[in-house]
Structure formats: structure tokens, C-alpha cells
Design goal:
Strand content: 25-35%
Number of strands: 22
Distance between the termini: 83 Å
Largest sheet: 9 strands, mixed
CATH architecture of the largest domain: 3-Layer(aba) Sandwich
Structural class: alpha/beta
Number of helices: 11
Number of domains: 3
CATH class of the largest domain: Alpha Beta
CATH topology of the largest domain: Rossmann fold
Strand order of the largest sheet: 8-7-9-10-6-11-12-13-14
CATH superfamily of the largest domain: P-loop containing nucleotide triphosphate hydrolases
Shape: globular
Length: 435
């Protein structure tokens, strides 16, 4: 065996013989990580025996077994619960609530099966203290371990019904000559845990770190190995947390779970619309309600806008929870097609609750909020707005309008402004602000 160090980009997997600050392939900075590989010749030639494919899909009788957590929002995102032989990766920003959600899932799973929690970062006392603070009662076996071999031996001896690894980046194997968290270590550890889950039908939940850009820290091969990737996101300064599935081999990837961070932990939000609209002022200027879709669920979100005259030559545009490039397009459309003189006004847009709106259905709502603030006229309190704004000033239809309208009507919104009522952004501004 002859070992050699190479450097692999964690962003694009490009290899380099020496370290450099920037990847020569994808131009990303500080993404090269060291990996030790064997460059020696093989000791002997291995002969492989061909396998005859004599099993057909029609002959396989498979019964899907789901292990419910009894946390409705979690089960919704997973597609009905954990598959009995699945490996799920849960990632999120530091302090967002990953450990809180994990220990709550363990408590629910412990009602029907044995749970084994491997912690490589926190002590047993810290985890126990959190469980007591959350008033969790069911028995959970907790082990401090950083060695993959120790983890596998413990699983073999205890035969648990559910396993948690916190976190995948701190578990290392003695078989790999590199430090924990390296590309080779994470890949090898994930492969071994995947084999355990599939061969013994044990669901395994892995906790992962994210980098400063909010992406999974480590090689992208990790996301290819696991069955499901869950992202817990939100704003540390707001109580709302959203759980999304970016990959799910056993369910849809467009579902979202909504949680509320409270003193007793993460609680499910059964009616997100009512919670997001709580505390809204009556007939506010620069405020619009938009029905948005998250997976198969529709809920209402408040969009706020503020315009202010500026004496500087270059006005400021700021958005919180909304794409700044999309905001610039909407402002340009308002200037051209609605005759709103925004060239000398700062424009600020905020999505209430710390949410992030990515779908184009919020375009018309943002435009109407800006117009309301600029013209200092409030919109009707029972109005909900949805529509995509194009570069020609047209208002386009959005997906699943019936679900959006039904959710708005359920909370008392009687007027719906969409592409069915107005075809141009100028018509929408004229309809509500020009008497």
C-alpha cells in the first residue's frame, strides 16, 4: 500500500495535487479538502463471477412499512414516517433547532421501539438536561462515541429499533487515514451506516452541519448516498421553523412542515396562515396578503413595503425574505407600466415571520405593497393578491389557484386579485389607487 495526499473540492469534486485557495474548476474559494488515497499497485487480480438476473419486478412482493413519529409535520415531510430501512439526513444552521427536533422525535419513537442516540459533540449530561427541559419521559439510550467501529459494535450488541448519529461530521473510522470530517471519512462512514440500515432494517437519522452559505458541509456524495435529506430552516430571531425535504426516495420533495419554537420545544403549527397573520394592523399602508404554496399546502403570508424619498442619486433597494433581483424587476415594471416614479425613492420589502418567498406568485403582492406605500393609500383589509409579473407588465396566472383561494376565503378574505381580474400591472394599480 502506498498512500498519497490529494485535495478535492467539496463543491465540484475536482481533484488537485496540491492545496490552493481557489478551485481551478469551479472557482470556489477555500473548498479544497485533503484526502488520503492509495496509489500503490494491487496485490493480486480479482476475478469476478457474473450474476444472472433471474428476478423480475413483477415477482417481487414488497410491503411498505412506515414508522410514524406521531409528529404530524415531521411525518408529512417524510411522506408518512420513516421507512424501516432508510437513512435520513437532517441539516440546518447552528442553533436552528436540529437537536431539539431530534430528541423530540426520539421520545416519540421510544414509545414503540428502543432508541439508541450516538452523540459525538454533546455529553450525555447535556442531552439529558435538554430532555428534562422539554419534559420528555420515554427511555432513550445515549452513548458518547466518535469511532465508527464503536458505533457499529454497539448497534450489533443492542439491536435498537431506531438510531441517531449526532453528527456525521465527527464520526471517524480507523480504516481511513484522515481526520474526522474529511471527504473520505464522511463517505466511508455513510456507506457503512447505509449497509447497516439496509441489512438490519433499522432507520437511521444522521445530523449534518452546514457551511456559511447554508449548504451541507462535506461532499455532495453524502446527499446521493442517503435516502432523504431534510433541511430545517428559519430565522433565529423569529419563532417559526420550516422543515423541507430536498430529496426523498419514499415521498414527495415539495412538502413542508411548519413548527413554532417555544420553551417546551418545537410545536406543530396546524394552521400556519392564522399564525403568520397574527398581530397584523387594521388597514395598514404598504401591507398585502399573498396565498403561497408549500408543497400541497397553501397558507397566507403578509408582505410589507416601505418607500422613502432619497436625496442620493442611487436609491436603495432592500429585501428581507424576497429575492432582490426579482424586486428590481418589479420596480422597473412599476416605473414603466404603472407610472410610479420610484427613481428617487428607497424601496424596502419585508416578508413577515422570517419566511422566504421563492415562488413568482408573490410578484403582484410585492408590487401592490410598493404602490400602496408610494401612494400612501391602504388596500382593502379583505383583499388577497397573487400573480406573476412579467417584463412586459403582464400579470400571469399561478399554479393551484383553487387551493390558494380556498385558504384565503377560510380566513375571511372576500376579494382575490389575480390574473383573472387584471391582465396588466398598471390596471391593478389603477383599480385600487386611482379614483
Amino acid at each position: 500500500m502506498k498512500l498519497k495526499s490529494i485535495y478535492i473540492c467539496t463543491n465540484c469534486a475536482a481533484e488537485s495535487p496540491k492545496w490552493s485557495g481557489q478551485c481551478i474548476k469551479c472557482n470556489s474559494w477555500n473548498t479544497l479538502a485533503e484526502e488520503v488515497v492509495n496509489v500503490g499497485k494491487k496485490d493480486k487480480t480479482i476475478q469476478y463471477i457474473a450474476i444472472k438476473p433471474n428476478i423480475h419486478l413483477s415477482d417481487i412482493h414488497f410491503k411498505e412499512v412506515r414508522l410514524k413519529t406521531n409528529i404530524g409535520e415531521m411525518d408529512r415531510v417524510l411522506g408518512g414516517g420513516f421507512m424501516e430501512d432508510s437513512v435520513v439526513l437532517l441539516v440546518g444552521d447552528p442553533g436552528i433547532g436540529k437537536s431539539t427536533l431530534t430528541i423530540q422525535v426520539c421520545d416519540r419513537m421510544a414509545e414503540s421501539r428502543s432508541v439508541l442516540y450516538f452523540s459525538g459533540e454533546e455529553s450525555v449530561g447535556q442531552i439529558t438536561s435538554r430532555a428534562r427541559r422539554l419534559n420528555l419521559k420515554n427511555p432513550i439510550s445515549i452513548v458518547n462515541a466518535n469511532s465508527l467501529e464503536a458505533v457499529l459494535a454497539t448497534i450489533d450488541a443492542e439491536r435498537p429499533g431506531f438510531v441517531v448519529i449526532d453528527s456525521i461530521q465527527v464520526i471517524g473510522s480507523e480504516e481511513i487515514v484522515s481526520q474526522s470530517g474529511s471527504i473520505s471519512q464522511i463517505r466511508y462512514v455513510a456507506e457503512q451506516l447505509m449497509q447497516v440500515a439496509k441489512s438490519r432494517k433499522i432507520p437511521i437519522l444522521l445530523i449534518g452541519h452546514v457551511n456559511k452559505d447554508g449548504q451541507l458541509a462535506g461532499p455532495q456524495v453524502l446527499t446521493h448516498l442517503v435516502d432523504t435529506v431534510l433541511y430545517l430552516e428559519g430565522d433565529n430571531f423569529h419563532q417559526f421553523r420550516l422543515l423541507r425535504a430536498t430529496k426523498n426516495r419514499f415521498g414527495a420533495v415539495d412538502e413542508v412542515g411548519v413548527f413554532n419554537m417555544e420553551e417546551c420545544g418545537l410545536t406543530e403549527v396546524k394552521n400556519p396562515s392564522a399564525l403568520f397573520l397574527e398581530g397584523r394592523a387594521e388597514n395598514p399602508i404598504g401591507s398585502v396578503i399573498v396565498p403561497v404554496m408549500e408543497g400541497t399546502r397553501a397558507f397566507l403570508v403578509e408582505v410589507q413595503a416601505l418607500t422613502n424619498y432619497t436625496q442620493f442619486g442611487y436609491p436603495k433597494r432592500t429585501a428581507s425574505g424576497f429575492d432582490i433581483n426579482r424586486l428590481n424587476i418589479i420596480i422597473a415594471a412599476l416605473n414603466r407600466y404603472a407610472n410610479l416614479k420610484l427613481d428617487s425613492s428607497d424601496v424596502f420589502v419585508n416578508v413577515v415571520g422570517g419566511l422566504k418567498l421563492a415562488e413568482p406568485a408573490a410578484d403582484l403582492a410585492v408590487a401592490m405593497a410598493i404602490a400602496s406605500s408610494k401612494l400612501q393609500k391602504p388596500l382593502p383589509s379583505d383583499l388577497a393578491v397573487m400573480g406573476e409579473v412579467g417584463l412586459s407588465g403582464e400579470v400571469r396566472a399561478v399554479s393551484q389557484p383553487k387551493k390558494r383561494i380556498k385558504e384565503a376565503e377560510k380566513l375571511g378574505f372576500k376579494q382575490i386579485l389575480s390574473s383573472g381580474e387584471v391582465k396588466l400591472i398598471g390596471q391593478a394599480v389603477t383599480k385600487f389607487f386611482v379614483s
